Amino acid sequence: MVAGKRRAPSIKDVARKAGVSVSTVSRYLNGGRNLSDGKRKVIAEAVKDLNYRPNTIARALVSNEFQSIAVIATDISLYGSMQLVQGIELAARRRHYLVTVTLVGNGHEMVKETVDQLIQNRPVGCIILDVERSSLLHSFAGYIAQSLPTVIVDEADLASGSLLIGAYEGGYQITKYLLRLGHKTVFHVSIPENGNKYTRSLGWRRALEEVGAPIEEPLSCTWDFRKAEQIGRYLCSFPEVTAIFAGNDEVAAGVIRGILLEGKKVPEDVSVAGFDGNPIGEVTVPSITTWRQNFQGIGAKAVERLAHWPDSDDRPEANGSKSGKVDDGTHKASEEEEPDLDQLQQSRAMGDEQVSSRLIIRESTAPPQSGRGR
Amino acid sequence: MVAGKRRAPSIKDVARKAGVSVSTVSRYLNGGRNLSDGKRKVIAEAVKDLNYRPNTIARALVSNEFQSIAVIATDISLYGSMQLVQGIELAARRRHYLVTVTLVGNGHEMVKETVDQLIQNRPVGCIILDVERSSLLHSFAGYIAQSLPTVIVDEADLASGSLLIGAYEGGYQITKYLLRLGHKTVFHVSIPENGNKYTRSLGWRRALEEVGAPIEEPLSCTWDFRKAEQIGRYLCSFPEVTAIFAGNDEVAAGVIRGILLEGKKVPEDVSVAGFDGNPIGEVTVPSITTWRQNFQGIGAKAVERLAHWPDSDDRPEANGSKSGKVDDGTHKASEEEEPDLDQLQQSRAMGDEQVSSRLIIRESTAPPQSGRGR
DNA sequence: CTGAAAGCGCTTACAG
DNA sequence: CTGAAAGCGCTTACAG
C-alpha cells in the first residue's frame, strides 16, 4: 500500500523535465516574477506531469520557519477549547499554515522538554489556550514568547494586552438580562479556579454593581459537574436565590439538576443561565439560556494576530510571495496579496466584540415568582 | 519580546564549543555509540551550555520523515472526535511525535490541495477520523494511503481490516441490557448518515436478532439535536416503544426532551440509553444511561499502529536510535529501546476490546411499566 | 573512536 | 530573463 521510501519528485526532477535550471523552477514556484512565458509554460507542464509539490520541510530549513501554528493547551476536551481549535484550524488553513496541537500536563521537566521541541519546529507562532487552568503552562508563556510570536487565548486578566478577551461582555449582558427580568440579584457559580479572574465573572460583577444589587462571592465549581449539582442543591435552599449565572453550560446543567432534585422548579423557583452556547443546552429539560461565544471567531483572530505579527515577514513588501502555493496550469501571479487584505479586514471587523456572540434565551430563565426575589 | 531571526545554536556551534567535529556531535545526539567518554562529556557540556536542541526540520529533510502524525477529520467538535484527538496527542507525544490536525470540508479541489500539502510534510503516518461523515474524505483515504501509513478510525465497516472498531460491543451490550430489563424490543435512533453501517447499530441489531425481538429500521437523526427531539416526540406516540437506544448521548438528550415534552416520563414510560459516555449525561435530568467508549485508548491504538507500521523503521534493529532525544547531563544510552516494548505491550493489551469501555447505568433506563412493553 | 565530504530539497544572492 | 554556487542543519557512508 505504502510507497515506502520512494522519494517524491524534487525540484531537480522538474528542472530536468522542463529543461531549465533549478533556480528557474524555484522562481516559478515563488511567484513567477522575472520569468519568460515560455519557461513558465514548460515548467507548469512539468510540475503537472510529475504531480510535483514543493517539499515544505526543505523550505522550512532554508527560511528557518515552518509554516505552522502551534497550539499549546492543557486540555482540549471542553466545548470551548475544542471550538477554538477548530476555529484556529480553519483560519490557519486559509493562510496555508498547518496546525499543531500539543497538550502539556504536569511535571516541569516534561513541559520544558515539550516546549523546547516545539520551538525547534520553528512554527510561525504559538497559541496558548486556557492558561488559567495550568499555572505551570502559564509560567512557560513568557519563555515561549521569547522565541516565538505568542498569543494567549484566555480571559483571565482584562488588563493585560497580550490576551484575547471575549467573555466580559457576555457575563455583563447575561446578568443584565436576568436583572431586567426582575431578579433582585444574580448569584454566580464559576468554572474552576480563579472565578474572580474570569472576565465572564467580572462582567457579572459589573452588571450588579451598576444597579447596586447585592453581590455574593461566586461559588467555585470543578470540572466534575456533579459538584455543580451539589452547589445547585445548596443554593436553592436560600429563598433569596432566584437567579443563578453559571460559568458554562455544563455547570448550568449540573446546577439545574441539583435544584430539580431538591423539588424546586427551573425557572419558576430559580432561573439558571449558562455560558458558551454549547448545543447540548438546546435539548436539555429545561433548555438552557446562554451566551453564545464566537469561539471560532476568537480562534481565527488569534491566527490573524500571528499572521500579522510586527516582526514577521508580513509587512507589505513588493518582492516574492511566501505563500508556498503552486499554480498548476493556470498561473495567476499577483493574486497573492489579496488574501492578506481580506483577512485583515475580517480581523478588524471582529474587533474585540465577537461578531456573532449573543444572548440565547431559552427555558431555564424567567421572571421571579411574585412574592419571591425581594 | 521575540528573538526574531536570531538563529538557534546549531550542531556546528556545539562542535566548535566542544572542540570536536560535527559528525561526532551527531553521533552523540543519536545514541552515543562509538564515542569515547571524554568526547561524550565535553559535548554534553557544550549542549547544555548552549541550550542546544537539534533542529527537527533539518533532521526531517535528511530522513525524509517529519516526526509527526497527521490527523485528518471533517470535524472535531463532537465529544468523541475530540477525545480521540486528545488520546492521539497523548500517545503521540510519548513517542515524541508532533500531532497535526487538519479539517477538510467540501470542494474536491481544496481537499486534494490540502492532502497533497500534508503529504509533503512527510508525517510518520496519517489518522483519518470519521470518514463516514464525509464520503469525500473517504474517497481520499486510498489516495493518502498510497503515500503514507494510514489508519482510519471509524466504525463504519466491520469487515474491513483497515478500520479500528470500538462500538459493536457497546451497541450489543447496551441493547442486551435493555432487553434484560424486560423490554420486548429496543428502538434505535442513529447518529447521522449510514445508520445501518455504524457498528453500534450492528451490535444493536445483533442483540435483537439473538433473542428474536422485533427489529424496526433505525430512525436517522442529524447533528442538529432538535431533530432528535422530534423523533422522541414521534416515537413515544407508539405504545410499543418502551426502550430507545440513541446513537450518542446528545441524541439521547434530544429524544428524552421530546418524550418529556409529550408529557410522558423517562424512564417510566420509555427508557432511553445514549452512547459514548459524554460527561454531560451525568447531570441531565434524568441522567443518561450510556456506553462509555474508551476514545483515548482508541486514539492511542491508532498511534501505535502507525508507530509499528510494517515498512517503517520500527523493526528491531541494533543500530542507532531515532528517538531524537538529547541527553542533557546524565547520558544513558541503550535505554532507547525500552519504550518501544512498553508501548507494544500496551497496544496489545488494548486488543480489540477497549480497556475501560463499559456500560454506565443511570436514571434514564428502567424496566418497562407493567402492562406495557409486551 | 574520529573527521572530511557529500547530500537531503529548497532559496538566495551573484553573475551574466 | 537565466543559471551556477553556496548554504540552511543535520545524517550517513567512507576513510582513517
What does this 3D model show about the protein?
The structure is a homodimer of 374-residue chains. Chain A is of the alpha/beta class and 374 residues long. Chain A folds into 3 domains: 11-54, Orthogonal Bundle (434 Repressor (Amino-terminal Domain)); 62-154 and 295-326 and 337-350, 3-Layer(aba) Sandwich (Rossmann fold), CATH 3.40.50; 168-292, Response regulator (Rossmann fold, 3-Layer(aba) Sandwich), CATH 3.40.50.2300. In chain A, 41% of the residues lie in helices and 12% in strands. Chain A is built from 13 helices and 11 strands. The first copy, chain A, has helices spanning 11-18, 22-29, 37-50, 56-63, 79-94, 108-120, 135-147, 168-180, 199-211, 226-235, 249-261, 295-307, 338-350; strands at residues 66-73, 98-103, 123-129, 150-153, 163-164, 187-190, 219-220, 243-246, 271-273, 290-292, 358-360. In chain A, the strands form 3 sheets. A 5-stranded parallel beta sheet of chain A has the order 2-1-3-4-5, with helices on both faces. In chain A, strands 7-6-8-9 form a 4-stranded parallel beta sheet. Chain A has a two-stranded antiparallel sheet with strand order 10-11. In chain A, helix 5 packs across helix 12, helix 10 (226-235) packs across helix 11 (249-261) and helix 12 (295-307) crosses helix 13 (338-350). The longest helix of chain A is centred in the first third of the chain and has 16 residues, at 79-94. The N and C termini of chain A lie far apart (72 Å). At the A-B interface, helix 4, helix 5, strand 2, helix 6 and helix 7 of A face helix 4, helix 5, strand 2, helix 6 and helix 7 of B. The first copy, chain A, binds a DNA duplex (16 and 16 nucleotides) through helix 2 and helix 4.
